[in-house]
Amino acid sequence: MLQYYDPNKNSQPGQVIDPRRDYGTPAISIDADETVQLVTLSIDGQEVKMPEGTSIMRAAAHLDINIPRLCATDSLQAFGSCRICLVQIEGRKGFPASCTTQVEEGMIVRTQSQETAKLRRNIMELYISDHPLDCLTCAANGDCQLQDMAGTVGLREVRYGYHGENHLDAVKDESHSYFTFDPAKCIVCSRCVRACEEVQGTFALTIDGRGFESKVSAGQNEAFMDSECVSCGACVQACPTATLMENSVIENGLPEHDVVTTCAYCGVGCAFKAEVRGDQVVGMVPFKGGKANRGHSCVKGRFAFGYSTHKDRITKPMIRNNIDEPWQQASWEEAVEFAANKIKTIQKEYGSDSVGGITSSRCTNEETYLVQKLVRAAFGNNNVDTCARVCHSPTGYGLKTTLGESAGTQTFDSVEKSNVIIVIGANPTDAHPVFASRMKRRLREGAKLIVADPRRIDLVKSPHIDSEHHLNLLPGTNFALLNALAHVIVREGLEDKEFIELRCEDDAFLHWKEFISDPKNSPEAMAQGHWSAGRAHYCSGKTLWKSR
Amino acid sequence: MANIKVYVPRDTTACSLGADSVAVSLQHYFSNNDIDCEVVRSGSRGLYWLEPLIEIETDSGRIAYGPIGPNIIDEFIAAKCWKINKEHWSYLGVVDEIPYLQKQQRVTFARVGVIDPLSLSDYENHFGFSGLKQALDMSGQEIVSQIKDSGLRGRGGAAFPTGIKWQTVLDTESDQKYVVCNADEGDSGTYSDRMLMESDPLCLIEGMTIAGIAVGADKGYIYLRDEYPLAFTVLEEAIVLARNSNFLGENILDSGKNFDLEIRLGAGAYICGEETSMLESLEGKRGEVRPKPPLPAIKGLFGKPTVINNVISLASVAAIIVNGASSYQNYGVNRSRGTLPFQLSGNIKYAGLVEIPFGVTLKDLLYEYGGGSRSGRPLRAVQVGGPLGAYLPESQWDTPLDYEAFTSIDGMLGHGGIVAFDDTVDMSAQARFSMEFCAIESCGKCTPCRIGSVRGVEVIDRIKAGENSVKNKELLLELCDTMVTGSLCAMGGLTPYPVRSALEHFAEDFESGS
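^ Those are the sequences you sent over. The predicted structure of the assembly is below.
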């Protein structure tokens, strides 16, 4: 890979993280070759060096000082609404919020004092004065940050009583199959709203009303199912209380352990924590350590795990001698022996090349590797394939030939640093939603987007996304478009000569240059349909982006 | 007979008292009787107990009559008042000699009520656009230095030095900068922004243009509250007038400098007068407070450096450029320089706008200008600075009208709104109202403000009902501390001030059964 971005490659303090911890606010994004100003500050008497732009809260977390908080989480930009994380800074008046205040050279921060303790307790008292007191029977019991923080700040009484104005009678929204929205438990921290905006980029949620009437609203006061919600689950994950809760947890209780795994629904390769009770998966929560998804998910990986316990799922080996016979349950020993015997018999009769193996594109790379190992080492032949090759052999061949690797040449993280993104022959919001969300985030930051696609895909225009150009070419003309682009680049001498010098064979490049310079490859000629359809090439599901 | 000009205000207050129909009656009478009189719709002088105030132009100055409502206009005409009838009961003499006006130093409001707000020639004949013309020949830094030297501080209420704010925007490099005028005048008892926009809109436009030229911004927005429809109409027309004569737009007066502006209407949220909420609203989002830093002067509207000033601050700019910083700086006391248009309202005999230099005592303003209570009963409490300002008892009325002097008594001058109450006021009800106002108008983002204000109302109710009143008073004060120190912005942070002041100075009103 060339010039790719990996946020963890930079060894600056604060960049290498433990994905199981929440640092409160996001790390500032630093590229490997970027130099960053480090500032030294003192928090509760301990010195720490952090990159400029880091929040006090995050700096403290790196010292294992966990400043109490409710509205802050490191997947979302600091918001400053809960006022639980207020600290004291020497020489500054008042109590700045540690999530929204950035570190400064020489700063002396105190996160705990009598004053902050009292302030936090008094604010927590306000929260609890408008919250049900059903902790023991609550679905989030044991996994509730409100409960944790009430403990942390030492709340012992609610002097306002529990009979003041409140939201306890707010009606649950059970419209969604996978989660329940219980507004009575909402603390209006906006984490769900912000997750829907910042992480997913769908903007289905908002805070409706103002003052005490402020409440989370899906769409325009619609049920979740009727709103723009795409069921990615980011809001549920972001919720610090039981307000947005997976139905599986409501029904079953909390998981007792989790296993990090890879989602096989599509090729993005999102990492998940499979949350388990005994041998039953009760939840799939995107894992922050996953390089592809960085803690985000789509509806399939997040909620569509019912197959793991589905009655149709085959959980025991089964064998049959003939296609006309019914399946019969067998032990693993029996099954393996049966298969080995059959394969050996066939090879004996028809030769060693008579058998082979095919893996599904739903298999992970590791599984596919093991199958080819079996075929090569045990079957003694090279008859191995994966169904991914059928659709991707042209892309694979092209990439291997031109760039030396039959795979993407970039990390998904690199999209965070892209300024121009070209999407050609792909529809990421539908096909690879998690990557699409990361790309949309960059587009909202100002990156330019060019879509070349016959279809008006969602990326052409959707909330806060407006592609600079939509080249709605005729189906089958991607090749013509790319050649025309290359023609102009060569004609106007815009090619990256240093790159060509370093990485191309002179003869091959000159040969291609001669070909592409032919006026029949010019955009003008292409527009007039002078290109030969016979040479068109279908560019399948390939997303190209240009760094910097 | 020579053409006589008869001035009838076109100002929301005057119009609500029938000024439009008065103007129509006069016009009909003059045209039906072939009388060479012209009815000019001026702004208001701000002598609101006299509205509709009619002025007749004479060689010895404008002669005023008032109040002349629609029920009196026929009598007014019959008495030939437009020919000057000194005997008429509504005759007030030369308007400039009415003591209420004569005692004022109208600097920012010099043209207000005098000119036709939508006459470019009127405006230019009264030094209009002289400031802009001068500014076009100055460097950005020269303009900013003038404003700094004048001592002008933000008239919206926070009193931050305007010149320093401009300097920050000038010094911040960016491909785009903005000037935003905060015209979301929502404080109870305030109307100076509205008056200025209705009566001298070009003054605001000129001030914004100078601000834009000073800091290098070519785009301005006026964030106007939706409740000011007349100000909207007048401003819109004034913008077109200015643009058509090249005082706005591209290459202003062939200077090579550009500045244009547009009006954005609010949607009825008090919180959108808070500058960061206003920016969110301007960007088309829900009006919710942003944490600071970053300061809007560095990262403001659409993330670009933005000058945000109140109407009066911007309207004071042209006069500072024309008359020089020292002329403005000569008014006032201590760190409060220049003049402030105070707005008297509530239970006060002479409610109206009083532009005077800082330094006069509150008592003088209440009695010398306001004439005491309207009801004739003794004044008991005065709220200065809008719904977030403290209620001041008589013992504090000797405080000079000076930002720091008011801060030292836990009060604030704010936007200069002064609401008076007589001795029939129930101060616990006023305290409750402060909390209730916050509960309704809070943006809902931060917890101390969103929930605290609701609990504040409930605790005051319990105190009044005699429920555990000692403990509940303690709780109320603690809640006030939590809101002051814990809130994200001044809305929740200042709401406790009127509550505490009521509790401290009018404790007897909090006894149960009182």
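Residues 62 and 89 of chain B are 17 Å apart (CA to CA). The mean pLDDT of chain B is 96.

Shout if you want it in another format.
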